[in-house]
Specification:
Pfam families: NERD (PF08378)
Number of helices: 11
Shape: globular
Helix content: 25-40%
Strand content: 15-25%
Protein name: Nuclease-related domain-containing protein
CATH architecture of the largest domain: 3-Layer(aba) Sandwich
Order of helices and strands: HHEEEEEEHEEEHHHEEEHHHEEHH
Radius of gyration: 24 Å
Number of domains: 2
Largest sheet: 5 strands, mixed
Domain NERD: 38-153
CATH topology of the largest domain: Trna Endonuclease, Chain: A, domain 1
Amino acid sequence: MIPETPIIWQQYHALLEHLPEMHTQYPIINGHFRRLDSGIAGEDNLEYHLHQAYIPSFQLIKRLRLEHHSSFQLDWIILTPGFRVILEVKNYTGIIYFDPKSNQLIREKDGITRTFDDPLLQVDRQYANLRTYLSDHEIQQLPVYRAAVFVNHHAILQLHDYPEHHRILTSQAVPAFLEKLSAKHSPAITEQQNRALVEFLQENHQERSISILEKHHILWEDLIKGVPCPHCQRRGMLRERMRWQCSYCGTRSNDAHLSMLYHLALLTGNRLTKKLVQEFLMLDSPEATRKLILRAGYIKFGESKQVYYSHPYLVQFFKSGQQMRKSGQQIQKSGQ
């Protein structure tokens, strides 16, 4: 399953919710989050234009991440019975041009020049990985086209002498690009086989997550504790008679703790301990903490001192080594 909001985005959001702004790592982490957020927004913004294309029987997958020897991610893949398209999305602003000799993208913005990896090299590498992945699972190969799409209307593309300029698109140009390809190709597989392939890829998506505190050298004691009030946002709500009470504005809530439990699940790799929850929710009783976790629907794993609790939705994203649910032969036979 591919989550609508990437797990790594949720992890960064959760960390920033609990990290004091004066912490030395805050600007760095916030910068990571802003770049991540910009990239995701760009991928999402392209969806409207993809649906404007008049192509029969096409399927879309966004942010597909597969693991095969190593991991690779496709911002967008369009699958039809006759051809496939991989799109690498960029949400850059400023003046953009490409240097074919250095294989770099160069951006000029606010008087500053920066270089980035050539997105066409990126999408071509993704294509090579996908081709190997499909071949190893005995899935029929179809023509695969690759392009880089600049989705921000504040980007000025200068492609005068770039030999691959036909593979550099704006989001508005994508529908016509796809329609031209559709006119060139007749179906090579059935619609049912195409849908089966989409299902196979989605089922074997491997969501990216990280040990975010370890990555940024954050200690648990660095983080802000206390349940936030849903009304005034101040922390430190008190648990009284099975409800949360804000000592600042008087707001009462039955479920103010749920968002904090979810944040802790993201920050721990979905392995909550009773001790950690009790500390961050500022509860007096270990038993009351245990009941609160279970009533929230968390799943208990382990025994005795090895017990931990996991959010049921997140289990699928934090477990590793998932097995293939279908074989390539099963996909090829679908619809026969």
